[in-house]
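Please review this pair:
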Amino acid sequence: MIYLDYQATTPLAPEAREAMLRWLDGPEGSTFGNPHSPHRMGRQAAAAIEAARDKVAALFPTGGKVIFTGGATEALNLAIRGTSGEGAVAFSAIEHSAVGDTARAAGAHEVLAVNEHGLCDPEQNLPQSARMLAVMQVNNEIGAVQPIDQWIDRAHNMGALMLVDGVQAYGKMPLPEADMIAISGHKFHGPKGIGALWVRDGVELNEMQTGGGQEHGLRSGTLSPALIAGMGAAAQLAGERMQADAEHVEQLWNRARELFDGWTLNGSAEHRWRGSLNIRKPGLDVARLMSDCRTLMFSAGSACASGSGRPSHVLKAIGLSDAEAKSSIRLGFGRYTTLEQIEQAAAMINAAAKEQGL
């Protein structure tokens, strides 16, 4: 099988797996303690968590704290629901549903337009009463990289908080000086079930999950030393490999663009994380394509919305018709993808599309 769905999840780094195993040992290993217990085993687990917290924090701006969560969805909920104040939450039309659905449920909200390239212009009209702006750094479906620094300036000039979904950016590029940034461990070769919200010093959050007062009194519940240690190891590795990984992805992108000549690219080719290739062909039956290419792991859109039968809200937001959106596929690649795998996948997809007369 060839895995090309890096936006949905990434392969666990061997270094992250190794870091996790110690904290999964049974009685003889004596490293399974509750990190909130006062005895020796508990203190060892707590120390491991704080060491991992430092590794995760190293890729964020200075002057903030890392709050561990169960994933980016929980982190985004904490950011939106945990902040108070009058006014709407304004978010881009291509935000993940963890932002869009949460903002809608939280009350007043506004949707910010994007252009045909998937870029959200910070000069557009905004509700002056907005208490928070939410714009993701890298889109999970089309890879569009937003002008985040300009958005942060716009938010602060109007007295609003700036929330950034950094899930697809963390470990791949520098993160911005926002007010809050959400990440997910399994999107940078860490384990699933662990994420974090980075909160700038001075930003106040309300407790959203009661029961024990862990994580700065904001997120009660026993932390997992194994998951956090794995996330910390993955973060450290991502920081060390950031340039090498980007160069590798650039090589894969250039070759993929050659191999998929004749397909239409969805989203900007310039302002983009190049590990995300979203392309379409008129009349393509994607369900049939995926059946014919069953040894290839790729996506017809966002994994979080798969099976809904609805066209991607991201592709609709950039102006695609229902038919164009439903004839699109997403290929995601990264650190462990080889050039040979890209070439094999392209040959299979192109052959299957040709069988459809395309």
Summary: The domain at 66-223 is CATH 3.40.640.10 (Aspartate Aminotransferase; domain 2). The chain has two domains: 2-7+242-355, 66-223. The CA atoms of residues 84 and 283 lie 47 Å apart. The two ends are 25 Å apart (CA to CA).
